[in-house]
Design brief:
Alpha-Beta Plaits; 179 residues; 21% strand; binds iron/sulfur cluster; two-stranded antiparallel sheet; alpha+beta; single chain; 8 strands
Length: 179
């Protein structure tokens, strides 16, 4: 299997949170209650969906969302700071993985992660998106990518992700010129 990179698209995400549900099902994360008032998924989530806006862009109201989980950084700061060496890279794919047995729950990884991706399970140990490495090895998409109806999550090779980022940047420039 080749190296994997992640793209999460804030231009198309509609905040449906289906990725959170799919991930929880895949990871067998603890059940959560849904509050009638907030209707936000609770308990351990490896994915969070963040909202930006609403804010005015000229005479238009702009609001966007992005789903964030571990981005499996190349030079991952979480690995560099972990005093227990519990975070490591899969040599084949570059996916960031956790050895829960070694984790001491110090939360150093959370402090340095630029995406705020680390979550912690009830036992205080790090719980991190493993990019559904088992599914990828079977030739399947990750649970979140498979589920997202807005095509807001894409897992591919670093070259595919770079190409996608360049195309999205060009689209944004075009849209800002039109509006
Ligand atoms: S499933 Fe897709 S559109 Fe829905 S919140 Fe997740 S990333 Fe956004
Ligand atoms: S936990 Fe954060 S710093 Fe570590 S690989 Fe994932 S996104 Fe990068
Ligand atoms: S790749 Fe898998 S583990 Fe990671 S956020 Fe998506 S569904 Fe969850």
């Amino acid at each position: 299997m080749t190296r994997k990179s992640v793209y999460r698209d804030m231009d198309t995400c509609i905040n449906c949170k289906a990725c959170i549900i799919a991930c929880k099902v895949k990871q067998m994360s603890p059940a959560y209650t849904v509050s009638r008032v907030e209707a936000e998924p609770r308990s351990l989530n490896l994915i969070q969906v963040y909202q930006y806006g609403p804010e005015m862009h000229g005479d238009r109201v702009h609001q966007s969302f992005v789903s964030i989980a571990c981005m499996h950084c190349d030079d991952a700061p979480c690995i560099r700071v972990c005093p227990a060496s519990s975070i490591y890279k899969d040599t084949e794919t570059g996916i960031t993985l956790v050895d829960k047995e070694l984790c001491i729950g110090c939360k150093g990884c959370l402090w340095v992660c630029p995406y705020g991706a680390p979550s912690f399970s009830e036992d205080g140990k790090l719980a991190l998106c493993d990019l559904c490495i088992d599914r990828l090895k079977e030739g399947k998409k990750t649970a979140c990518e498979q589920t997202c109806q807005a095509s807001a999550i894409f897992i591919g090779t670093p070259a595919e992700i770079s190409e996608l980022q360049a195309r999205k940047a060009a689209e944004r420039i075009f849209k800002s010129a039109v509006y």
